[in-house]
Write a structure and sequence with these properties.
The complex is a heterodimer of chains A (404) and B (409). Chain A has 404 residues and is α/β, with parallel strands linked by helices. Helix content of chain A is 42%, strand content 17%. In chain A, strand 9, helix 8 (245-258) and strand 10 (262-267) form a beta-alpha-beta unit. Chain B contains 19 helices and ten strands. In chain B, helix 1 runs parallel beside helix 3. Classes of the chains: A alpha/beta (404), B alpha/beta (409). Chain A binds chain B through residues 254, 258, 346-347, 349-350, 357-358, 360-362, 364-365, 368-369, 371-372, 374-376, 379, and chain B through 20-22, 316-318, 321, 359, 362, 375-376, 378-379, 381-382, 385-386.
Chain lengths: 404, 409
């Protein structure tokens, strides 16, 4: 099976779960014999239409990676795009040609799609596979140009990103037409499948659920201790509305009223970071909450391993790979019920993200009752064993087959 | 001659409500859930009374009358079920009293709170057994002679304890890997002590309790005539068929529309059609038939799951740690002389609390899930442990008498 795949981020340059998922999935597909041409936006000061990228990874050496010169970055909003474009163009080292890029995010998405058409005309493939809305237009154009089958994979919808408030009409329209143009749709969970069926008018028969997985690693994390007596509770993710960081802090306040010997780490970047720093101060717990900013590579596992507990209080989480990563390090997780991962993880504690009392109760319980921590950890480690990217990739291959 | 010995287990635990860390020290009512969930004890009692206890008691009473004393059954009703009938459904209690008055019903004795005390505290075991004995005597005006341990837990040591408490016989599980080549259709005795044993015929019991409505079962639909034939087939190679099951089988586990009441209604007469057959209560059965052998069971057996052991209650670290915490404060609770504290503590000893913490069912199938009113075993553990901490804080305050028993938290 030859696959033309459109994504928008790929490790080591990645800011969220989408990059992790694309990496794991393409690796799994390659190992199962698929030939992948992976296309993604790449900001470059060269005046090239597109470039071939070399990925330093043994397994992925068979994969053909193409970067389209574009100012698109993952998880950017339309106002964020304009800010960023200005910065990139003026501070980007060699002066890039501002004319090259779309004047706003949506024009840039369009421009990316037009380039995709050119690639589709020149590459050899059986099926097109795109990840999330920024690439959906590219997928549609590629399908039109080649007449090949189109699979779109939904990792998150506009409803997840906005919590249902202030859904961007343009983004929604692109998502919707991508789903309607597609021959098959992959949802990362039943939760997301429901979202697709309910909000986008898609028949459930057209949607297959393929759960994400977690990469196995040989890395031995370096653990640290903040203080001898203090337990550590971790939040790790983009600090955005979707991830519910404020619920983490409100619960932290409650926990600290009960037990002073706890430190909270909020790891990650995002448009709510400043607000969260202010909130921690406002709640009078600034000395108990540490903000790390963005974390990368091995630092992530170091954090999980050092924490006593991981919390994912997401408002709307289509999947949520982080609890799997946490359990990979033996650290138990409390996860939001409104998440895809809660469909497959039995050995995790589950809460309604808004139920701060219950979240605090569960945090304190894991910290206080040693056997609860142990049981969640040992069972959880065993449970995630079966969620491998190999398994996900095999299911994706089945979805491809279903197109024909 | 084949005797059928029916014994029905009637039990309802006091389920612990969702009890958070923040309730500790402020809220001493552990069992008063008022939500729409299955933690609401009153709601459950109302439901099961309507679906099972009231209609089944009415039917059994009717059958006893119609069979003119030839149909007999035994019940074991736990103290925590009796407490809840008194509190929420007095009519259920009245209907059991009416059954007691027929003289065709035997009541068995067990631990008052359906506890695992036989494995953890000989003293508490004794206390709960005598508490239950007095309760049954008071309510149903009868002496109990046969003992039934929680979940049919049994081993040589438990048999010794039971004998010391003055019982003539005890009921336990008769699964193949417990009995080996022996048949459950005879009376046995315990090793080294003079205590007779009645063993559950698990095949025939489970045909009714578990398989009755299973459409994939090759014997479905099970009619009373066919079942009576199976019972009759024991003739010649056994003396009695012990049909032991949860009373909730009728109407609650097997719904009315499965035909379970019809089955029960016809069964006594189908069985009595054969002149060699009859019904006996457990105490009659042990008097009627000789002991054919001695059972040596050093390890703990039960009637639960494929393993027939205690792993459903004590299989994981959470369960063991929770129960250890509980029995660790037994002496202090008793010394406090605070009757409410002791009552609450006893309600915490009910085996169901530990069953809800079982993580086996993630692999084992639906039986536990069906019985678990909590979302996960972890939620069960958290509420239990939080309540334990509240209980300890009450102890530290010395209960009502303020004697100040210090407990290490």
């Amino acid at each position: 099976m030859k696959v033309l795949m459109f994504g928008w981020e790929f490790p080591p340059v990645s800011t969220g779960g989408l990059g992790t998922a694309c990496y794991g999935l393409t690796k799994g597909l390659c190992l199962n014999g698929a030939k992948i041409t992976f296309v993604l936006p790449k900001f470059t000061s060269e005046n090239a239409e597109y470039v071939r990228i070399i990925i330093a990874d043994k397994v992925l050496s068979t994969m053909n990676v193409i970067g389209i010169n574009s100012a698109l970055v993952p998880y950017v909003s339309s106002s964020g795009y304009q800010q960023m474009l200005q910065q990139k163009v003026s501070y980007g080292g060699k002066t890039a040609d501002a004319q090259l890029y779309g004047w706003d995010l949506f024009e840039e998405v369009n421009r990316f799609a037009q380039k995709a058409k050119l690639i589709a005309a020149n590459e050899d493939f059986d099926v097109i596979h795109c990840h999330d809305w920024m690439t959906f237009l590219a997928g549609i154009e590629a399908k039109k140009a080649s007449g090949k089958k189109l699979v779109v994979q939904v990792h998150a919808t506009e409803f997840d990103r906005t919590g249902g408030h202030g859904v961007n009409q343009y983004v929604y329209d692109i998502e919707r037409s991508g789903m309607h143009f597609a021959d098959r749709i992959i949802a990362v969970s039943g939760f997301t499948k429901n979202m697709i069926v309910q909000h986008y008018g898609i028949s459930p028969d057209k949607v297959d659920v393929v759960y994400n997985a977690v990469e196995r690693t040989n890395y031995m994390p370096n653990t640290f201790k903040i203080s001898k007596s203090d337990k550590v509770v971790l939040f790790l993710g983009r600090v955005t509305l979707q991830k519910g960081p404020e619920y983490f802090l409100y619960a932290a306040k409650k926990v600290l009223q009960h037990n002073k010997n706890v430190k909270f780490i909020m790891a990650g970047n995002g448009d709510m970071l400043h607000k969260m720093i202010e909130l921690a101060a406002h709640l009078g717990i600034a000395d108990k909450v540490l903000f790390t900013g963005g974390v990368k590579g091995n630092q992530v596992d170091d954090l999980y391993k050092s924490a006593d507990l991981y919390v994912m209080p997401s408002v709307s989480e289509p999947f949520g790979i982080t609890p799997l990563e946490s359990l990979r390090n033996g650290t138990p997780a409390i996860i939001s019920k409104t998440s895809g991962v809660s469909e497959i993880l039995k050995h995790a504690l589950k809460v309604d993200f808004w139920d701060i009392d219950e979240l605090a109760n569960k945090i304190l319980s894991v910290l206080n009752y040693r056997v609860l921590h142990e049981t969640l950890s040992t069972h959880g480690v065993m449970e995630i064993e079966k969620y491998t990217w190999d398994r996900s990739a095999k299911e994706v291959l089945n979805v491809y087959q279903r197109c024909f | 001659m084949v005797s059928v010995c029916f014994y029905f287990q009637v039990h309802q635990p006091y389920r612990i409500k969702r009890y958070s860390v923040f309730n500790i020290g402020k809220d001493h009512n552990y069992f008063n859930d008022v939500t729409d969930t299955d933690l609401n004890n009153k709601k459950i009692i109302d439901k099961v009374a309507k679906k099972c206890y009231l209609p089944t008691n009415k039917l059994i009473l009717d059958l006893i009358h119609r069979a003119r004393g030839k149909f007999k059954v035994a019940y074991s009703i736990t103290g925590s079920a009796l407490d809840q009938f008194e509190e929420y459904a007095p009519s259920v209690l009245d209907s059991f009293k009416a059954l007691a008055d027929t003289g065709c019903v035997e009541f068995l004795n067990e631990t008052h709170n359906h506890s695992l005390s036989s494995l953890y505290s000989k003293k508490e075991f004794k206390d709960q057994v005598s508490l239950h004995k007095r309760r049954i005597k008071k309510l149903f005006k009868c002496d109990t002679k046969v003992f039934r341990n929680t979940e049919l837990l049994y081993n040589n040591d438990i048999a010794k304890q039971v004998k010391e408490l003055g019982y003539e016989a005890m009921i336990t599980e008769g699964a193949d890997h417990i009995l080996g080549w022996r048949s459950p259709n005879f009376v046995y005795k315990a090793k080294d002590v003079d205590l007779k044993l009645l063993l559950k015929n698990y095949k025939l019991s489970d045909d009714v309790a578990f398989r009755f409505s299973e459409r994939s079962w090759k014997e479905w639909p099970l009619k009373s005539e066919k079942f009576a034939r199976w019972v009759g087939a024991v003739n010649g190679n056994g003396n009695l068929v012990n049909l032991f099951m949860d009373y909730e089988t009728f109407g609650e586990h097997q719904w009315e529309d499965t035909g379970i009441f019809k089955f029960l209604e016809q069964l006594p007469f189908e069985i009595l059609k054969h002149p060699d057959n009859n019904f006996k209560t457990p105490s009659e059965a042990i008097k009627s038939y000789p002991v054919v052998g001695e059972l040596d069971i050093p390890w703990v057996v039960s009637w639960a799951d494929v393993e027939r052991d205690a792993s459903a209650w004590l299989g994981n670290q959470m369960q063991r740690s929770a129960i250890q915490e509980l029995y660790m404060v037994e002496d202090a609770v008793k010394q406090s002389k605070d009757p409410q504290l002791l009552k609450d503590w006893r309600r915490m000893t009910t085996s169901d609390h530990f069953y809800y913490m079982c993580t086996k069912w993630f692999a084992d199938g639906d039986v536990h899930k069906y019985f678990n009113p909590y979302d996960t075993p972890y939620d069960a553990f958290i509420s239990f442990m939080n309540v334990m901490n509240d209980l300890k804080s009450r102890l530290e305050q010395g209960g009502e008498n303020n004697e100040g028993v210090r407990i290490q938290v």
